């Protein structure tokens, strides 16, 4: 059974249709990238996955629960969420940002320390950075801290909305690599919204292509490699989008 799925979901904002009859099963313990033109509904879909938005009709199932019926606070503890620009609290140090939820959950101090140590090693965060405030960190460092925070409670689901958009291309490649390392170490059902076709095709095992509020294509990485051998990611995505809906 998929840990995360949408069934016939519709979402409108006033006259704007953001999602139009969207159904999708996200593969468990794998990373799915959602790509598509600006305004096609990617972020709306992601926000529905942790109950930040509610569908007008249809259902969102996460971790065996229909989110419309679920205790959202409880379910969200098992769903990590990282957004563009890191979203760190500016008045808290990096360490305090990372451990905030674990403290609220009253984890023992020793478990918190162990988890911080595991995550900072995986994410290549120098321990001395943990005592700095977000404004004292580079964009790439903030992003790494944001990933550590999202993964602190060992989430079953990880939602990533353009988490690397604000950082320069070299640092970006580095942080993308750290994300891969972290997900290899702790397989999680992850969904990444991105504008970057290279990022999508290099990180994801599964690709969802959206257009005008609908899912128009879904492909595994293996299918993409077989269908578009050796082609540049930009060309692959352009062809998937241009071919229209299936
Ligand atoms: N709060 C809102 N009120 C009104 N319209 C909204 C709101 N949020 C999103 N929309 C509209 O819904 C549609 C889908 O938006 P969404 O942010 O999900 O798209 P997106 O694919 O993530 O876009 P982008 O790639 O530009 O971030 C767009 O037409 C957008 O203008």
Task: Summarize, please.
The protein is an alpha/beta fold. The protein has helices at 42-49, 72-76, 94-104, 109-122, 139-151, 169-185, 197-203, 221-227, 233-242; strands at 4-13, 16-26, 31-36, 57-62, 65-66, 79-83, 157-161, 189-193, 206-211, 214-220.
The span between the termini is 24 Å
How many domains? The number is 1
Assembly status? single chain
Globally, the shape reads: globular
Q: From the alpha-carbon coordinates, what is the Rg to the nearest angstrom?
A: 18 Å
The CATH topology annotation reads as: Rossmann fold
The count of helical stretches stands at 9
Strand order of the largest sheet: 6-7-8-3-9-10
- Stretches where pLDDT is under 50 for at least 5 consecutive residues are none
Bound molecules: adenosine-5'-triphosphate
Highest CATH level, the class:
Alpha Beta
Structural class: alpha/beta
Q: How can the largest sheet be summarized? A: 6 strands, mixed
Tally of DSSP β-strands: 10
Question: Helices and strands, in N-to-C order?
Answer: EEEHEEHEHHHEHEHEEHH
Helix content: 25-40%
How much strand content do the residues show?
25-35%
Organism: Parahalioglobus pacificus
Keywords: ATP-binding, Nucleotide-binding, Transport
Protein name: ABC transporter ATP-binding protein
InterPro entries: AAA+_ATPase, ABC_SmlMolc_Importer, ABC_transporter-like_ATP-bd, ABC_transporter-like_CS, P-loop_NTPase
């Amino acid at each position: 059974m998929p840990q995360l799925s949408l069934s016939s979901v519709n979402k409108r904002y006033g006259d704007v249709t953001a999602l139009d009859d969207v159904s999708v099963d996200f593969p468990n313990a794998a990373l799915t990238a959602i790509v598509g033109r600006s305004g096609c509904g990617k972020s709306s879909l992601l926000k529905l996955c942790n109950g930040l938005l509610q569908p007008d009709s249809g259902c969102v199932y996460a971790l065996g629960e229909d989110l419309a019926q679920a205790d959202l606070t409880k379910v969200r503890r098992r769903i990590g969420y990282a957004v563009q620009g890191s979203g760190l609290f500016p008045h808290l140090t990096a360490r305090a940002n990372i451990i905030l939820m674990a403290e609220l959950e009253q984890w023992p101090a020793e478990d918190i320390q162990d988890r911080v140590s595991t995550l900072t090693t995986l994410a290549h965060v120098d321990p001395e950075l943990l005592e700095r405030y977000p404004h004292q960190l580079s964009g790439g460092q903030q992003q790494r801290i944001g990933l550590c925070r999202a993964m602190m409670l060992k989430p079953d689901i990880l939602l990533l909305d353009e988490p690397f958009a604000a950082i320069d291309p070299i640092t970006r490649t580095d942080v993308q690599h750290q994300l891969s390392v972290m997900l290899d170490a702790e397989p999680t059902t992850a969904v990444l919204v991105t504008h970057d076709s290279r990022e999508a095709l290099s990180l994801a095992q599964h690709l969802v292509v959206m257009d005008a509020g609908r899912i128009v294509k879904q492909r595994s990485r293996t299918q993409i490699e077989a269908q578009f051998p050796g082609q540049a990611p930009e060309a692959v995505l352009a062809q998937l989008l241009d071919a229209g809906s299936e």
